[in-house]
What we know:
Layout: H1 4-18, H2 32-68, H3 80-85, H4 90-100, H5 103-119, H6 141-150, H7 156-167, H8 174-190, H9 198-227, H10 231-234, E1 247-253, E2 256-261, E3 269-271, H11 274-288, E4 291-295, E5 301-305
Parallel strand pairs: 1-4
Antiparallel strand pairs: 1-2, 2-3, 4-5
Helix pairs in contact: 1-2, 1-9, 2-8, 2-9, 4-5, 7-9, 8-9
Amino acid sequence: MPSAKSLFLERMHALETSASIEAVTNKTLTDKAHNDVARMLRNGLAVVGFAALEDFVKSRTSEVLGEIGSTGIPFRDLPEGLRIATTYEAITALSYQLSLRPKADRITYFQDHAQKLASTASTAYDLTPLAFGYSQANLQEDAVKEILKSFLINDPWGQMTQLASRLGLAALPLNETFKGAALRRHRAAHIAHADTPQTDLAQYVKEALAIAIGFDTLLTRSLGHIRAHDRNYLTGRTSISSASIKIRSIRRTGTVWKEFIEGRSAAVKVERDLAQLLPATRTRAISAKDLLVQFGSNGEVVLWECN
């Protein structure tokens, strides 16, 4: 099954392409039939684009929850917010998700998730993937914040905004960006005369990637502390800061690809062939525990890897 990140990147690249095709571009005022169709298509892209970000946040969180049980750390030693979210608070999400499923599937679905909830009382446990983001139809700004706060990350939106700014992906606070995208999605889905500008769709791709990279980086860093049974982190004596995360990037300059480390103006490695540069850069990023981001020929995000 594809990872949450790979699916999200596929969807964002498809959205970026779709936002620039002739079918969604207005023509002259006399081309009313075409413009009406273009407006409808742009509204549809606004809806599915935001849904892709919602799905990434929920799916990536579920992936991390699925890994925690194999870390060997006792459930009682997990952060309190995480323990609460994966036990009795998950009941609300389970109830909501049951209402969306065919009646014939509900008993099995309930038993599967009830078993995960009950497993938290034993040494070997399997956290429910429904703990975050599955209790209502749409993901709210506060829900994203609460996910990261449950993993002991302070000022989640501020931390994500700082990473996005350092990557050159966003200038405005990302919580405002998220709220704006959610409002655009709501208008596109529920207001008949809504008109999503083509430029908004193109800008949203960059903003959604900024949110996804920041969210994933902080969440993955937290998982690393849990895997290491870091008592200082688990007891809240130390916290994760975006300032401690070093960025390593790959960018194209002319006919060559260059590897950069944040804080250094000169490239640390230059290759004509990306296929030679990427594996070596990836190895160095893993060794240094850097955030690796590869940008394409047009400055678009092609991939990121959290270490």
